[in-house]
Amino acid sequence: MCDHTQQLPREQTRQVQVGAVVIGGGAPIPVQSMCNTKTTDVAATLAQIRDLAKNGCDIVRVTVPTQAAADSFVQICAASPLPVVADIHFDWRLAISAIKSGAAAVRINPGNIGSFDHVDAIIDAAGEVGVPIRIGVNAGSLDKAIAEQDKLSIADKLVHSAISFTDHLERRGFYDFVLSAKVHGVPETIETNRRLSQELPHVPLHIGVTEAGTRRQGTVKNSIALGVLLAEGIGDTIRVSLTDDPAEEVRVGWEILSAIGLRRLHPELVSCPTCGRTQVDLIGIARQVEQRLQQVRTPISVAVMGCVVNGPGEARGADIGVACGKGQGMIFVKGKTVRKVKEDEIIDALFEEIDRRWPSS
Amino acid sequence: MCDHTQQLPREQTRQVQVGAVVIGGGAPIPVQSMCNTKTTDVAATLAQIRDLAKNGCDIVRVTVPTQAAADSFVQICAASPLPVVADIHFDWRLAISAIKSGAAAVRINPGNIGSFDHVDAIIDAAGEVGVPIRIGVNAGSLDKAIAEQDKLSIADKLVHSAISFTDHLERRGFYDFVLSAKVHGVPETIETNRRLSQELPHVPLHIGVTEAGTRRQGTVKNSIALGVLLAEGIGDTIRVSLTDDPAEEVRVGWEILSAIGLRRLHPELVSCPTCGRTQVDLIGIARQVEQRLQQVRTPISVAVMGCVVNGPGEARGADIGVACGKGQGMIFVKGKTVRKVKEDEIIDALFEEIDRRWPSS
Predict the structure, then answer these.
(1) Do residues B305 and B328 make contact, with C-beta atoms less than 8 angstroms apart?
(2) Fold of A9-259
(3) Which residues of chain B are modeled with pLDDT < 70?
């Protein structure tokens, strides 16, 4: 999909380090999410961070809306297995507090952080200890003077706001930042990030569709927007926003990276839609296989096919696969039939072969 | 996303009519699915077709693998509220039978339908009664002579197979067909359809990712591939393949068309990912709103926001919205606050306002 003879936009961005995780300059694309626990509930927040880590999250964000939250934030950073980004709105002093508390980065929003004097205080504090900043522009909370310019499109407003802010940071000699500009619309998200990538070719971009909705709609919107952008080489780190469990954001993020072949955490599952030919409980089998594959971290491809039309063909193309017939399954490994088993033995037999042949998993 | 000053590829394709539904030539993009009931179980198949219709399905496919299925197929076509496409593999006589039984179209697969003599018999029978054909090429069931050419990429094989087949139909004077070429990989799906659109600019394309997997992975893969293609103007009808309930395929299909602004069935829901600032059960509220919006068929935008950061901004940008604070919600209509209600009254109040202001829904 990408022309690899010329450099991709994301290979030209500066590298920024968030904890031990590198963003930009062609580094593997980190998957981010955000806690939805109360930050003052340290135990619940750490439990959620551990769950996110287990699902493959690389960087986590935690809101710091009050001084009480800032106090808890110290303990969260100290015990977190992932680098923690402090999410700051309105109050620049909380950003300074978070920087001193062990934040791996701070996210500030040009639309609501106030005057450039306050921004400069944050920049200086961050620069002193080497903590990067994420500039998070959002269509729902633009600076009022920009938001009210009715002649500008949403993309115009986001790009304009982002550039005036990044310019300010760079003029002060601060380059250790990542930029995001988010909106809930897919075409607007694509246009905004294409323009940012052109106008600011050296700035690493955090991409995502914000307020994308519940699981189905949010998954679709993020997949399209991030799929289009990543395939064009745009985007250095991703966050899928869903009105759902944050772990689901991470799982969808990995599916997006896997689908375009950029980064893979688990085996690829190839499974057919069922039809009137299917003679086994294929939906049930595929779901169970998918769940057990979550424990396997070898990037093999696994086919679960319901009939003789495409079944043997796809199962042969995969590293391992099963083509199901009436009450039974044929297990293929690299194109050769290795076992014929009864329906209720398919899943165990499949994983026996996976464990035996790819033992590192 | 598309440059509307020049003609899109899909505006240049021939129109093909499947029942009362038009595919191609820039017509609204129909959403398709396929039954996974036994075709011989007429009652179950018709119940599923009615459920698919309720979810917005435009065209449904039903497998016809045996003569017994062909016998049931007559009754299904007679009672179906949607045009029914017969899915035929291996046996050309079943295609002829389906054409005579009231099929709105027949889908045949060049990889397994046998000699061109048999194909010609199908073409002639279809031409005689004006039934269109869908040519369905699939990477898992290519003609053996093509499948075994190791030097060709998957996209090469699919395009080559598709063109040799469409050429044959056109040489026989038959133009009433739609073409699909499917594979389970996203980059291969995109490349194949881009090439088909260039090589066969007048042939309407049915696009989709096949064997895309279970709900999450399948939704992601179809969203990316169809999103990229549709945004480039490629694709005249879609089917999302999922190893899941076919109605979910239709719901995801509509989400894809809505997200890129091509076609919309329900209101747009804008809802934020929750975070540590959220003081209401926003996931629960958003899910309930989403469900009730399924009954509304006016293309308004509805925002459900969890806090004061982006909440009022997004809620103001929507036709109607609620910004939630501690135990309460502010309802906005076209940017103006109209009501302030308690948390447990938010959903009812929102739908009271929707019903009152957009009564056609």
Answers:
(1) no
(2) TIM Barrel (3.20.20)
(3) 1-5, 308, 315, 360-361
Q: Is there a contact between B182 and B193 (Cβ–Cβ < 8 Å)?
A: no
- H or E element in which residue A161 lies: helix A154-171
Task: Determine, for residues B186 and A252 on separate chains, whether the beta-carbon distance falls below 8 Å.
Answer: no
- pLDDT tens-digit map of B238-261: 999 999 999 999 999 999 999 999
Pairing status of strand A328-333 against strand A336-342 = antiparallel
Residues 208-247 of A with CB under 8 A from B: 210-214, 216-217, 219-221, 223-225, 227-228, 231, 241-246
Amino acid at A27: A
What confidence category does residue A5 fall into, taking pLDDT thresholds of 50, 70 and 90?
low
Average pLDDT, chain B: 92
For A95-108, the pLDDT digits (tens) are 999 999 999 999 99
Chain B: nearest CA to A16, how far in angstroms?
Answer: 25
Chain A contact for B55 (CB, 8 A cutoff): no
DSSP element (H, E) containing A329: strand A328-333
Q: Could you report the predicted ipTM of this complex, rounded to two decimals?
A: 0.89
For the cut 70, the answer to whether the pLDDT of residue A4 exceeds it is no
Write the residue in A147, A273, A309 that is nearest to B243 by C-beta.
A273
Q: A288-305: per-residue pLDDT in tens?
A: 998 899 888 888 889 998
Right CATH for B268-357 from 3.90.550.10, 3.30.413.10, 3.40.50.1000, 3.10.20.740? 3.30.413.10
Task: State the span(s) of chain A assigned CATH 3.30.413.10.
Answer: 268-357
Q: Does A338 touch chain B (CB under 8 A)?
A: no
Q: Are B346 and B332 in contact (CB under 8 A)?
A: no
Q: Per the CB < 8 Å rule, is B219 touching A223?
A: yes
CB of B193 within 8 Å of a chain A CB? The answer is no
Domain with CATH 3.20.20.20 in chain B: 9-259
Type of residue numbered A121: A
Considering the entire predicted model, what is its pTM? Answer: 0.90
pLDDT for res A3:
45
Q: Is residue A260 within 8 angstroms of chain B, CB to CB? A: yes
- Name chain A contacts of B38, Cβ cutoff 8 Å: 276
Return the H-helix or E-strand segment holding A248: helix A246-259
* CB contacts, 8 Å: A187 with chain B: 1, 231, 260-261
Nearest CA in chain A to B221: A259
The tens digit of pLDDT for each residue in A249-277 reads 999 999 999 999 999 888 888 887 777 77
Residue B144: CA atoms inside 13 Å, Cβ hemisphere, count?
A: 5
Q: What is the DSSP letter of B293?
A: H
Mutate: best of A34, A146, A217, partner B, most B CBs <10 A:
A217
**Is A118 within 8 Å of A94 (Cβ atoms)?**
no
Going by the DSSP 8-state scheme, the letter that residue B205 receives in this structure is: B
Q: How far is CA B89 from CA B107, B111, B299, in A?
A: 8, 9, 40
